[in-house]
Amino acid sequence: MSREDDLRSQALTKPAFSETQASALVESVFGLKVSTIQPLPSYDDQNFHVSISRTKDTTDGPTEYVLKISNTESSKTPELIEVQSHIIMFLQAAGFPTASVCRTKGDSITSLVSVDNGSEITSYLVRLLTYLPGRPIAEIPISPQLLYEIGMLAGKLDKTLEKFHHPKLSCLHRENFIWNLKNVPLLEKYLCALGQGRNRETVAQVIQLFKDEVLTKLSHFRECVNHGDLNDHNILVEASKSASGGAVYQVSGILDFGDMSYGYYVFEVAITIMYMMIESKSPLHVGGHVLAGFESVIPLTPVERGALFLLVCGRFCQSLVIAAHSCQLHPENKEYLMITAKTGWRHLQQMFDMGQKAVEEIWFQTARSYDSGISM
């Protein structure tokens, strides 16, 4: 059983390494001397920001890294993490701002570390990636131009991955993966985490519409490999000054490839739209800017466009329901898990109340404005 089959396994699988233990891992597995280490927020794995000390053997190269310790369930699928790591390296070679993957002392890209906790021996896959500069876009005001560029980035990512080949690529066919957008109906068994009330009723309605109007059209969507999690904390930006003296932000990093799977072009843009709405002051207008950027690379077909509204609603439901369920398992991680919920329920209700036709009119009119050179 894995995270793909049952979220309840999360209660048993999240690593709990101390900073001292994590430092020892960096030194024993990767041969680097740690000067400082601090935990980073994460969903069901464990991440640390690591700074290393220079030695005679490390006189050049990066000094900041991210140590990633996979949960025990993910650690049972090393081929999946291997493919994700090779994709990160492939994208970096293609010019995308992804991290570099560091090799172990044994010249591997991952290492399986066993820990004896007294009652059993548990194994964790560990990796070390270079630390990427920048701030999450969740922390800055996002302009229409930046939304357009993020949409374009999502399109280019999927387009570039068409050229990626690996003997184990088929492991990205993750049929029961709870975060794959086609699996919105799997949320039904976690609805109890919402209690009773309007939120639960809305999610149940979205699931039924999704079954009737999205799943029946999957064969008409164009398939590809999706990043699957281009959220406002997984895209980093750095500021530069514009000619007028204001700040102009450019993407400086793409993080977290752990939710990669086979999906469809329209899934990627829907997921990106949903997450860009989270912190926006005018969330309903976000979709048009992201869509225009994406379609400058990969124009959607009429059938794909027609599914976009329910796909965005479906992603809101995935994020909100899984967060509510995970909070019951990990109340100590509530602040991180509930980031989307702060505004997500309001955005979902607003979209659902307005209805597909009205929301599409805003999105598609905004996207059309780019054709005439006048962005809204």
What summary fits the major beta sheet? 5 strands, antiparallel
What average pLDDT do the residues reach? 91
Structural class estimated from helices and strands: alpha+beta
Low-confidence runs of at least 5 consecutive residues: 1-6, 8-12
Number of strands: 10
Order of helices and strands: HHEEEHEEEHHEEEEHHHHHH
What is the overall silhouette?
globular
Terminal CA distance: 48 Å
Q: Calculate Rg over CA atoms.
A: 21 Å
Strand content: 15-25%
Biggest β-sheet: strands ordered side by side in the sheet: 1-2-3-5-4
Helix content: 40-55%
Q: Helix segment count? A: 11
Features:
16% strand, 3-stranded antiparallel beta sheet, 10 strands, disordered N terminus, 376 residues, alpha+beta, single chain
